[in-house]
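To whoever picks this up:

The nightly regression suite flagged V-type ATP synthase beta chain as changed. Nothing in the input moved, so I suspect the structure step. Input below, exactly as stored in the fixture:
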Amino acid sequence: MPKEYRTIEEVAGPLMLVRGVSGVAYDELGEIELADGEKRRCKVLEIDGGNALVQLFESSTGLNLESSKVRFLGRSMELGVSEDMLSRVFDGMGRPIDGGPEILPDERRDINGLAMNPAAREYPAEFIQTGVSAIDGLNTLVRGQKLPIFSGSGLPHAQLAAQIARQAKVIGTDEPFAVVFAAMGITFDESNYFIQSFKETGAIDRAVLFINLANDPAVERISTPRMALTAAEYLAFEKGMHVLVIMTDITNYADALREISAARKEVPGRRGYPGYMYTDLASLYERAGRQKGKPGSITLIPILSMPEDDKTHPIPDLTGYITEGQIILSRELYRKGLEPPIDVLPSLSRLKDKGIGKGKTREDHADTMNQLFAAYSRGKDAKELAVILGDAALTDIEKLYAKFADAFENEYVNQGYRTNRSIEETLSIGWKLLSILPRTELKRIKDQYLDEYYVQQ
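Regenerated output under the current build:
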């Protein structure tokens, strides 16, 4: 039977100080009972001798210090996991919000899981098809990879996230594939968009959704990604599934971390974020990957909106250090009406070479990818030159490259949020675009592939 304490000293915003406690641990859950019998939840943030500083999950309004009592439950936050979680929608605390019954768990797991041991990691090497050409063809996602999407305020990262969640699959295998989707600090309209998008296409049947709304407590936002990763670990390493985890928006998560840190009066780091934000983000991202001897895997796509489109902001900056590349959305391409507005040149997947080629995608993939990058880069340079000096200053070959750049953006990158392209379709579009250029310009592709796929327009 847990001890009850009536020694609440003070309440300041979401924080409460309880004196004279014993046997209470960091991160332990607690329950506050008000005089009228109402119960509210809290979590231990700090222990100093017999004093416990706790964070309230709900509002502190109406909390009477003298008549309220606190019980500490002897455990940290847990999630009941089961295969029945598939096709269900939960809030940030793991409670069903889709009108369905409570989950009967196979087991209960502490949501503060550990980062994967590097010695137990299997190297990511298998291609995941997202159906998005700018990702599959040029910045390939590999099973077990951590590949973030860097967006900006107002850019359509929600539509891209929903598209990847609906379309992603491991090709050439019958192994079960699941999507765990965690949304943090989003509006009700965005939440409704995600849920309806999953239901319309039937993708909900293989998905688990955790939704934390903008008006939910900040401390719940901290637990939401950990709930999602706990569910993913169970499905991947206990049930042998390939799990794709999509988290949006990491910026809202980091802001909640800053809010809690400020309430605790901790010394702030860069831009007011806590100095331990790198460690905190790493504790999330490093739970993804593949384990030796286990068939399942966790592939992670965190999505973050860069404040003021600044790549050097602490959130994208630290995320870039931990993860294996980034997909960058461009405001310039968004203004041109491209869907999705993925800027392929600064985007990068550090593991793409391991997931493409013969037996994975197609033998010509690496060569065409390199040639498309080179041709698009030269085409953009030619277009910039034309803006300064006029079209008349361009040579005939530079005009061809400028034409290629426009066609590349309009046909390859711009595909809409409802088009699901196979890797063969993506490669075919790439070859069609390369045929705008004379064969003598395609110096990055082996002759054997040119003989087989190249057709001069």
